[in-house]
Every structure is written in C-alpha cells, then in structure tokens.
Amino acid sequence: MPEMYRGSERELLDAIIDRNREALIASVEWLSDAESRRRLVASATTPIGLIKHAAAAERFWFQRFLDRRTECDGPANPGEASYAVDDAESLDDVIAEFRRASAESRRIASGLDADDVLMNSRDEPVSVRYVLQHMVEEFARHAGHADILVEQIVASR
User: Fold this and answer.
1) CA neighbor of 150 nearest in space, from 91, 98, 101
2) Given its phi and psi angles, is residue 74 left (phi above 0), alpha (psi -120 to 50 degrees) or beta?
3) Phi, psi at residue 126, to the nearest 5°?
4) CA 65 to CA 8: how far, in whole Å?
C-alpha cells in the first residue's frame, strides 16, 4: 500500500478507492439492523441499501465491464433495484458481500493498466482510468449519503 499522499497515479487511485470503500462501511457498520433499514428519504435509499448498491456497482464495473463476465458473483445491475435488501440479509451479511465484491474488483484491476481501453455496450471506448475515477466518485458520494442518513437516524433516537 502506498503512503497516503505519495505514489504513482494508479497507486493513489487504488488507495483512494479503498479509503472510500472503508468510509462507506464505517458510516453504517455500527447501526443496528433495524436502523440500517430505515428509509428517511423519498427514494429507496437506506444505509444498508447503499452498501448493497455499492456491491452491485463493484460487480458491474469490474466483473461485467472490465473482466467481461456474463455471470457475476451476485447482482451486477447498479440501478434503483440494487438498493433492495432481502429481509433475511443482515447488515453484517451485506457488508461482507461488499467486501467480497471489493476484493474481486481489486484482483481484476490489478491485471489492468489505467491506459487500457474497452468498448462499452454503445461501442464507445472507456479507459480503465475512467472506471477507477468513477469508482472514487461513486463510493465518496455514497459515503456522504450514508453520513447524512446516519446523522438523521442518530438525531431521531
């Protein structure tokens, strides 16, 4: 792992993605299962749902797009439905799912160069660099969402 403020562009991107993954988890991991399922906004976004969605985003971008898999190790559509969590799944279960998806993403990304380019479904070139930068944005945005939701939950205790 590179130092926090130094390293190659790739080392820094990988480290920032990991920090944002952990920030998202840290925001919600101490909630009870019931609190993690509280719906406080008009959309289906909940703290546990943000983690579930992040796992789907991992699989979509790394397994489906970068690794070209037709079958992923879980749901890989990061749309609105990806926020849905089965009643039988605990917060710990969903965090573990996200951690597994993240580990697989790291493995896939380690074999690619940031300058590598793949074609998306619209036949447009997309660089690995774009995917990595997008994941920085994705996880940072959702960690912020989680922080706000948790703040509302704590205020309502």
Assistant:
1) 91
2) left
3) -130, 125
4) 24
Within 13 Å, how many C-alpha atoms sit on residue 92's CB side? 1
Q: How many CB atoms lie within 10 A of CB 84?
A: 14
Domain residue extents for the chain: 9-155
Confidence of residue 3 (pLDDT cuts 50, 70, 90): low
pLDDT of the residue at 157: 84
Q: Show the CA angle centred on residue 47, arms to residues 44 and 52, nearest 5°.
A: 75
144's CB contacts (< 8 A; 6+ apart) are none
pLDDT in tens, 116-150: 999 999 999 999 999 999 999 999 999 999 999 99
- Amino acid (one-letter) located at 117: V
For the cut 80, the answer to whether the pLDDT of residue 4 exceeds it is: no
Q: Which fold has domain 9-155?
A: Four Helix Bundle (Hemerythrin (Met), subunit A) (1.20.120)
DSSP string over 143-156: HHHHHHHHHHHHHT
